[in-house]
Amino acid sequence: MKARIAELEKELYYSLDILLSVSNMKRSTYYYNVKKPAALDKYAEVKASILEIYEKSNKTYGYPRISKVLEKLGYTYDRKTVYKLMKELKISSLIRVKKRYKQGRVSHICSNKLNRAFTSERPCLKWVTDVAEIKINNEKVYLSAIMDLYNREITAYSVSKYNNEEMVIDNLKQAIDKTKDTTDLMIHSDQGILYQTNQFRKLLKENNIEQSMSRRGNCYDNAVMESFFATLKCELVYINKFKNIEQFKYELEKYIDFYNNYRIKANGLTPLQEKDSYLVA
């Protein structure tokens, strides 16, 4: 009613006194309700931006990351305000439960040269790799991935119904082809049998890639890859129902693109942005 009175006043040039008289409304009531929507919509614009950012992150961003994106968009709201607005919108980041691992006995087939030094001075200096088992409609599928420790980019990945040598070798070949220059490169993995095969180690030697392995039974020696797979399962696998493995592969490709190009890290940059900043420096 209040909005219609305002429209009639503008469109038909009736005086406000006449309109208020016809509608039997007090002048104070009219002005209160005209001003009220502006107060209610104080955060309307930023709320719309928050929802857009949240959806683009596959509903995985919490208020710290959303605050960083908003800052890049020119908003000046602090984290507490963003947190409050997200509560009003009834949205929150998906939270995964951290697993606890027991440390097994130490055994060395290849020494732990990385030694938990999970930072790198430049791209293509330190890679980490691992294989994850994922269930799609009670059917197992295996994902092999290689990450560059400089910017935490997923350099290459391979999916197979079988946890075999061909999968990890295909993954390694993809990464080498993308990189071209493997000077001083080291790759770190656990002591899985797939990384001990002659063909895998031969491929490393042919490309002058140094091999490093975690201590047996110590997942923390490859914590970055463990963390990536936990994130992937939380942000992709657990929140979706895939009809089949082919659909999973399709969605996985989209997720890896999101992870490398759009998902911001604690420093406010995506993996590719961090890599680009190094290349132009």
TrEMBL record:
Coiled-coil stretches: none
GO biological process: DNA integration
Single GO MF descriptor: nucleic acid binding
InterPro entries associated with the record: HTH-like_dom, Integrase_cat-core, RNaseH-like_sf, RNaseH_sf, Transpos_IS3, Transposase_IS3/IS150/IS904
Domain of life: Bacteria
SUPFAM superfamilies: Ribonuclease H-like
PROSITE patterns assigned: INTEGRASE (PS50994)
NCBIfam families on file: transpos_IS3
Protein name: IS3 family transposase ISEnfa3
Species name: Mucispirillum schaedleri ASF457
Lineage: Bacteria, Pseudomonadati, Deferribacterota, Deferribacteres, Deferribacterales
